[in-house]
Amino acid sequence: MSERREHVPEYRWALPSVLLGDGADGRPVRRSTRDWIVDIAMFLTACLLALLTATELDGEPRGLVLTEQVTGVLSCAAVWLRRRWPVALALVSTVMASYLEMAGGASVVGLFTVAVHRPFKISGPVAAVNLVTLVPYGVLRPDPELGAGGMFVLGVAIVATVFAWGIVVRARRQLVWSLRQRAVIAAEDAKRLERERIAREMHDVLAHRISMLSLHAGALEFRPDAPAEDIARAAGAIRDNAHLALQDLREVIGVLRHSSSAGDDGPVPDPPQPTLADLRALVEECRQAGMKVSYTTRLEGGTPAEGDVPRGLGRTAYRVVQEALTNARKHAPDAPVTVTVSGGPGEGLTVEVRNPRWAHHGRRIPGAGAGLIGLTERVELAGGTFGYGPRSDGDFWLRAWLPWSP
């Protein structure tokens, strides 16, 4: 999974600003119903705090009271801009609150907004500015009952509580967003793996059928003087394999369409899958196409029948033999092929295919090695081992071992 994760776009791992309520590049974001409720609550909170402090202005000079009232109204109205300019609102209101009491409500809302909407490297200094401005406020306008020290302690408690609350809200939003993104990525990974599985099935099935078509067509091309019966038999084989290829392709495309439209409604049904018992039919089909194939099974451990092999295990073994025979037809069509399947419960199932590396002077069927790569992935996913390559005796050897639980 770590290798696949590298292909995920990087923007998924960055917390988008729109999640926190402010637009990118300073652009405003259209508020949702929830945003309107929160903004109204913040506005009312700022107004309530401003009204509570207004009761303490009795006995103050008329000019100061007027200044307090105007500042309180403007600062409360500025709360509506907190999503667009949270830092500016917090700093301006905090500086004003260092002397003016009615700006304190907007200052508290601004600090909370910055703690929610900005990372700690920005919100931390803003909180520090709030703490610093408590000193001139306590000195210039001390409370008769609490005094300068009591006012400072109370202010520190309020700043710490509001700031901590904002940090908790931000952390929760980040967690929820992260879980949602992980769910999206997991769903996309599942879709990609499903497409890879379907592509592997298409390759395994169609490569076999098309190689059979090429083999029969090559026989007709290089033996135009063959008896009419042989020509009719080859043409019939071409027709049958073309029909089977179209049928297999229709089934796989049907599964692909179902996987694209089903969503989370349920598991995607698999097309009919072969088992180990179908190997004999595969070998016989290749023999009828002119290949020289010998097939030997040595199943032990109280399970002598091919039909008793677990379906998943038999399907993987079938695909290994199918791809090996397809490659033999591509690269050494006239060479004899030996297929051996052995093993048992607890011991594991071993599939071995060998054929001489004969030179082929005709037109070679193109191949990119995707089949062997797909087989390696398929066998490793099943918990087995897979190897192939030329041997010193001149044969090409392919071997797969698959675990078989007793």
UniProtKB/TrEMBL annotation:
CDD domains, per the entry: HATPase_UhpB-NarQ-NarX-like
Transmembrane segments: 36-54, 87-115, 146-168
UniProt keyword Glycoprotein, yes or no: no
Pfam family, one: DUF7134
Domain Signal transduction histidine kinase subgroup 3 dimerisation and phosphoacceptor: 194-259
Enzyme Commission no: 2.7.13.3
Keyword terms of this UniProt record: ATP-binding, Kinase, Membrane, Nucleotide-binding, Phosphoprotein, Transferase, Transmembrane, Transmembrane helix, Two-component regulatory system
Keyword Cell membrane: no
GO molecular function: kinase activity
Taxonomic lineage: Bacteria, Bacillati, Actinomycetota, Actinomycetes, Streptosporangiales
Catalysed reactions, semicolon-separated: ATP + protein L-histidine = ADP + protein N-phospho-L-histidine
Protein name: histidine kinase
Domain DUF7134: 33-173
